[in-house]
Amino acid sequence: xxxxxxxxxxxxxxxxxxxxxxxxxxxxxxxxxxxxxxxxxxxxxxxxxxxxxxxxxxxxxxxxxxxxxxxxxxxxxxxxxxxxxxxxxxxxxxxxxxxxxxxxxxxxxxxxxxxxxxxxxxxxxxxxxxxxxxxxxxxxxxxxxxxxxxxxxxxxxxxxxxxxxxxxxxxxxxxxxxxxxxxxxxxxxxxxxxxxxxxxxxxxxxxxxxxxxxxxxxxxxxxxxxxxxxxxxxxxxxxxxxxxxxxxxxxxxxxxxxxxxxxxx
Length: 265
What we know:
The chain has helices at about 15, 20-30, 40-55, 75-85, 105-120, 135-145, 170-175, 195-200, 235-245, 250-265; strands at about 5-10, 30-40, 60, 90-100, 125-130, 160, 180. By secondary structure, the chain is α/β, with parallel strands linked by helices. The protein has a single domain (about 5-265), classed as TIM Barrel, CATH 3.20.20.
């Protein structure tokens, strides 16, 4: 049993026309499954098509990335709500806030994020959060919608992951206090990512998940390779296993079990 890339974008132009080859390279790297994330309705539909074409290898997420917030209207929400009932969809999102690039108005980002959280209702699927330089707004929105896993109400126990986490120790602790988790990309392998490495070194073993966020963020030792792709999650996994003083096979088994359980694969 191999690794699972818990967050990739196989639908992006750099990868979508070579999915067969991408999966063949996954085989060589012992990467069994990929969760490909849709960032708007059209992108999510392609993600679902890929998951339907490769049901044993690919599953999908669907949501509105914060960069898309200025473009989202009522019809888009209705379409997304329908996509969320597709069997191939194992996650709501990615969704959230991005104040680094500000490609969309911040109030629109918060509106679209909040609406998606409200739409999830009682459906039992994981929630994938994109949060960049916006935790002070992102965290209370999740709490206000009942997603605090250690709180009360309908949100109790909801599965929430802050993907591609690059924040501080204090931010990681604030996320953990709510019962949510973070996941690690190739950024953790970068020489200057010392604080992130310290967070990863001490991170609870039963919550660890790894991802590529491909086609971006190629890890060391393939840092200059473009595009990044799911097979490269093996480099991140090996780095983390060494960092934590764990055997590679044991690390693979742990992260696989965590990812299967989190996404209900």
